[in-house]
């Protein structure tokens, strides 16, 4: 009986932890806003060039690092009207009160293959 309870406890622990993680993934939230400010300040794009309806923000990882404090990793993709895309990884701390508990670390990805990477990299295998 003890082993069953331990197994169920371990099974549901990730679900309970995920429930407390704040949702900071929207295109109007902190990660996306900071990425756009970075792109704009670096002179890579402007407000007029962005197709805002195609902005995508996906949380790809998170870890609880303190009481009500989570390290979050987001993939933020901005698409210009020309079709050019900027994919940026944003890493920051968030809590249930605030998505901006610290300044983010941002990583501009030079090559981004959405979907099945194995199909897209066959052309480079030679």
Give your account of this protein's structure:
The protein is built from three helices and four strands; from the N terminus they run ααββββα. By secondary structure, the chain is of the alpha+beta class. It has one domain. The longest helix has 19 residues. It starts with a helix and ends in a 5-residue tail after the last helix.
Distance between the termini: 57 Å
Strand residue content? 25-35%
Helix content: 25-40%
Low-confidence blocks of residues: 15-19
What does the largest sheet look like?
A: 4 strands, antiparallel
Number of strands: 4
Number of helices: 3
Structural class designation: alpha+beta
Radius of gyration: 18 Å
Q: Globular, elongated, flat, extended or rod-shaped: what is the shape?
A: elongated
Summarize the topology.
Layout (H helix, E strand, L loop, with lengths): L1 H19 L9 H12 L14 E11 L2 E11 L5 E10 L10 E5 L7 H5 L5
Antiparallel strand pairs: 1-2, 2-3, 3-4
Which key terms come to mind for this protein?
126 residues, alpha+beta, four-stranded antiparallel sheet, 4 strands, 29% helix, elongated
């Amino acid at each position: 009986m003890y082993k069953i309870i331990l197994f169920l406890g371990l099974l549901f622990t990730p679900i309970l932890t995920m429930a407390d993680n704040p949702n900071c993934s929207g295109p109007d939230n902190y990660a996306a806003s900071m990425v756009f400010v970075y792109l704009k300040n670096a002179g890579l794009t402007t407000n007029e060039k962005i197709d805002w309806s195609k902005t995508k923000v996906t949380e790809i990882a998170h870890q609880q690092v303190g009481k009500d404090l989570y390290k979050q990793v987001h993939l933020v993709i901005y698409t210009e009207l020309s079709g050019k895309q900027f994919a940026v990884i944003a890493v920051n701390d968030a809590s249930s009160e605030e998505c901006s508990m610290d300044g983010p670390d941002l990583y501009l990805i030079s090559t981004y293959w959405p979907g099945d990477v194995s199909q897209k990299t066959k052309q480079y295998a030679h």
